[in-house]
Write a structure and sequence with these properties.
196 residues, alpha+beta, two-stranded antiparallel sheet, disordered C terminus
Length: 196
């Protein structure tokens, strides 16, 4: 394992200036979609993780619609590779701003900014959102960097985006997704060499 560099807050805020309002909008839209979907699904048709799973699915779909082929899966987790950084989107704790994870080898590796020798050790930035216990209110949207249990920095995206004068529209950049021509996942075909 090798250690990833910690991205600086200034580097994030300047390098992602046009993307910050998009991240804010994607999370707000994902939350509103999740709430609309919950109205049509009685509580006894939802398990305890339904809200989080639905929210993450909405975020994933909107990220793919916006950024196309820059959306990736690393270590089985959905992320966005942009500007030389890896961005993970996750629900975070209201007080600590740490992401909610089941303790696994992969989650420990990501939280501690570790990479294997076989991957590019791009820095990780977490785009987190906080909700109340009943999932009725979105309480905050943050970009953050941490190393283990140490928070390096936190940027409040909702206030940052509100102060920004950047105009944005969805689907402004990056390659479009064509599931036939450019699938997100490709399957290698086995080739057979014929002896001469």
């Amino acid at each position: 394992m090798i250690k990833r560099d910690n991205p600086s807050q200034r580097e994030f805020e300047q390098g992602f200036l046009s993307d910050i309002p998009i991240f804010d909008n994607i999370i707000n839209e994902s939350f509103m979609r999740m709430k609309r979907e919950s109205l049509g699904r009685p509580p006894h048709f939802r398990n305890r993780l339904w809200n989080a799973v639905t929210m993450n699915s909405n975020i994933k779909g909107l990220i793919i619609e916006q950024y196309g082929g820059l959306a990736k899966v690393i270590d089985g987790r959905f992320c966005l590779k942009l500007n030389g950084k890896i961005l993970f989107f996750k629900k975070v704790d209201l007080k600590t701003k740490m992401p909610f994870h089941n303790e696994t080898i992969t989650s420990k590796k990501l939280v501690n900014n570790l990479a294997t020798l076989f991957e590019t050790p791009d820095p990780i930035i977490w785009i987190g959102y906080c909700v109340d216990d009943s999932w009725t209110n979105l309480l905050g949207i943050y970009a953050e960097s941490f190393d283990g249990n140490v928070v390096n920095w936190i940027t409040d995206l909702s206030s940052f985006g509100a102060c920004s004068t950047v105009n944005y529209i969805f689907n402004k950049i990056t390659p479009a997704i064509d599931s036939i021509q450019n699938p997100l996942v490709s399957i290698k075909k086995e080739t057979v060499k014929v002896a001469k």
